[in-house]
Amino acid sequence: MQIIKVEVIPVELKLRHPVRISSSVHLERVTAVYLRIETHEGINAWGCTVAHPDLTGEKPDHLIQTCQAGADKAVSLHPTNIEYSLSELSTVVSESPAALCAFDLAFHDLLGLAAGMPLYRLLGGYRNRIQTSVTIPVSTLQESVEIAQQRAIQGFRMFKVKGGLDPQEDVERVRAIHRALPQHLLRLDADGGYSISQALDVARALKDELQMLEQPTQEEDIEGLRQVKQNSPIPILADQSLTGPASALQLAASQSAHGLCIKLATCGGLRCAQQIDAIARAAQISTMVSCVIEPALLIAAGLSFALSSPNVRYADLDGHLDLEDDPTIPGFKLEDGWLVASDVPGLGCTVEINR
After folding, report:
1. Residue 107 · residue 142 · CB < 8 Å
2. What is the mean pLDDT of the chain?
3. Of 1, 132, 244, 278, which has the highest C-beta tally within 10 A?
4. Does residue 223 sit in the same domain as residue 309?
5. What is the per-residue pLDDT across 68-94, written as a single tens digit (0 to 9) for each?
6. CA–CA gap between residue 53 and residue 289 (Å, rounded)
């Protein structure tokens, strides 16, 4: 098998509703970068990544340029020698985990297509479905309740409430959602917005309402995260503090979190995700597979990984739901808040982009 062409295809995708990231940033669109690998045998494999300047610091122009440099390199690589090929690509795209993620997905998709097997089975095949939370964005108390009720009608039974701007307001929003939907599981994601004392106050106030508190302190404050974890009555997960296998090892060794939140687009793809999960598993720390706002092709990859490992306890894979004109036609299904894999080979998705 030989690669004969690698295309880099940037796509601007609008959100159905702007998402509030902070007091000054509202996200209205996202730049997705698709990769199409074509082989001499006529196989077409797809990869995908996203640029989120306000979330990851990666600018679209830089991401596209890096992906193009990787595409020039990828043509000379063997498509099914994934470990070697991704190691070689790492030398070209080392400054961009998002770019590496796109190639990682495309090469894994190609391997699944060549083998005639769905990727989640190739990666381990521990299960074929997992329940996901759905995000309640930063919003007013009334809006938060209304959004949660709408998602409940759609079948979701777990909500991840975004917060971090005002601890007391976060407590009130979570309590209001719990009163309205007492049988639903709630998670709170502070996005690094709390001090140690604020995080502990929130955790203690909501110990009977929350399943977990995600990234309560600033991403670089590992010691602060450890102090919160040691004194919190509810599980603490690290998100932005986790940037790759090295940081996973640091978090595990310092016992700074009960769980690690893995996002393919920020850690570099499936290969890095497996390394992080192996570290967490050895340290007896659970993992959650999460996402940014991203197309369904990336969600399919995250789902494949989530289904592959018994150490993945949680899923938060809803980043595609509010994108308009996503060119991905997913093979997986969403049934009452559960993501269910298909047995279509590779990532199991079709991509339709007008060029």
Report:
1. no
2. 94
3. 132
4. yes
5. 999 999 999 988 899 999 999 999 998
6. 21
